[in-house]
Amino acid sequence: MFSKIRSLIFKFEPETAHDLAIKALKFNFAPPKKIIKNKMLETKLFSKKIPNPIGLAAGFDKDAEVYNSIFSLGFGFVEVGTVTPLKQFGNEKPRVFRLEEDEALINRLGFNNSGSEKVLSRIKKNKPKGLLGINIGPNKNTKNRLEDYLICFRKFHNIADYITINISSPNTENLRSFHNESELNDLLKAINNEKTILNSTIPIVVKISPDIHDNEISPISDLLLKFNIDALIISNTTDSSREKLININKLEKGGLSGKPLEKKSNYLINKFYKTLREKIIIIGVGGVDSGGSAYEKFLNGANLVQLYTGMVYQGPNIVSKISKELTNILEKKGVKNISEVIGNKE
Prior knowledge:
By secondary structure, the protein is α/β, with parallel strands linked by helices. Helix content is 36%, strand content 16%.
């Protein structure tokens, strides 16, 4: 059905279309999928069994409004946010752009969200029906970015299944400076100390930029291991990789997501996989829109994958589609479970 109405949906500005999608999910206009148990795709994330390793990335359900409707579409896990301590509008509109020929998006949203108190209230009132992660970040005009992470961590540590420390958006000025060894050390140390003070067992995830250099992989990995980080998300959007794009919107400032990010993401996943040696869970993001593209992420070392842009172009049935295609690939390979192929790139 989505393929029939996509042209109509795409007549709307991307952010308007997104708002309509959120409303449709709120009112259950998208019928829930029957979750078919598939032993080949069953996996665990932070010791919790989930039906498949396909998650929805942060950015779609920024305000934690429709995560249970998203679970009903078949996603194995959902990540909401990015959530900041205080409500903020984000950058000026227009700030989301489709690149249809490139199967990509460019956004410069700037952490627009309702703020931590509102999001906390919503989640308390609407118990998650699946594994829910909360992605956190600092307000644009904060005087203390590190403290902003701690404020959100305190609020969400006992209601989320995991918390993602987002240091990777290209749309918040200087946020990516947290990739620097000293700043990342200070941030992870502060988070770990707060976790100890709260006597919390919440898994901590770090989401990194795809634009880091090879010489940054080792020091970042060392810090992730030093502070017992549970998982690494590779990666967020890129502010480069525009050379081969076709659509004129490639000239817009912001983070690029979708198919053009796929190879860069896979390269980083493989590099970190070889460096971390399976000591930390890797969640692969970037260009996942088919069973084949998901399979490549697993071969490169991802334990699980997330998507967002793929759903924009293919609609809410994308998880069913990927699951079927992935199952067919595994059957042809004679593989009993997806875990068997992780890191098996030749």
